[in-house]
Amino acid sequence: MKLRGSRRSEARPLYGAQMWREARHHLVGLPFGIVVFVATVVLLAVGVGLSVTVIGLPVLGLGLRLARWFGALARSRARASLGAQVGEPGPLPAGRPGAMGRALAPLADGLCWRSALYCLLMLPWGVITFALTLVFLVAGWPLLPFVVRYLAVAHRVLVESLLGPGELTERVRELEEDRGAVVDTAAADLRRIERDLHDGAQARLVALAMDLGLAKEKLLDTELTQEQASAARMVEVAHGEVKVALQELRDLARGIHPAVLTDRGLDAALSSVAARCTVPGGVRVNVDLAGPDGVQERPDSAVEGIAYFTVSELLTNTSKHAGARSASVDVWRSADRLMLQVGDDGQGGAGRPGDGFRAAGGLAGLAERIGAVDGVFLVESPAGGPTTVTIELPWRTRAARPV
User: Is the pTM of this model over 0.90?
Assistant: First the structure.
């Protein structure tokens, strides 16, 4: 029943608007095919011919880059006129650093080569579709809708197979989205645990501490027998233990996910961490998360959590191992990335064996946590200092899927 329904939903008038859009696409396909064929052939031929010289490979890369752009234009035309369901591939990989690396990046991109093949096929395919559409438009009016439609189906298949993102790219994108969902879920679970501790166990311990404190004061204000004095001392000890347990619970809740981070964001949370740092000269904190329009924004909560705990661990261990007089924390936004830089004027040498957290193993743990969300972790710490740790995180843990 569903299959029959879907077939009925695909039915359309023989000479409806969609047929005329497809016919126009076929007629315009010939001049489009001539342009992309000539441009691609010329640049690829020149690039291959000059490949033994310095400029040959960059010219070849330029031809492939242009073919990729033609492919993007063809995808847009196919979506608008043919109803093609083709996803948008990712951006061209940056390649190696430097101008030459960027020039040669298209040579390693599969979509560039598939787009070049599409451009080469467009001239013969454009001739075929133009000729058939024109002939049936003039002399084969009863068969025109069927010819136009089957040509459109064939062209959609061509676009989706050559110009789509490819199975591997789609699989990578799905894995990235799944990983982002796991990171977001873990962050939400940590916030829930922190709220449960704050609203449940911590609140009850506060009430118990207050009751024990009142009981201790009443016992101290009266004359006690020896047994009552012993009981009063037990109440006093219990009161002290409850206060210790309450402080430990608060530290635990802060270590799971600090409430100030959820309520007020990174600026307030990192300022709180800096205030607890024991570096003699204090820690300077500068947070600027303004978006392109100048409005202060917040990254994903999972990214905020990773940034907070990374800076917290760096400052804690700076105060323990660096011998620094002062430290600094700078946080800013760069396009779709969250940038952090933690520095100190200590003895340097972070990453040396046997240096506690600042040894390679301790820093590797932070690098693994940041790498889990495609972040970057860089350490510059020459002997004698200063030490600068630069962290780059995605602004969002999951990118929106193109439609």
Answer: no
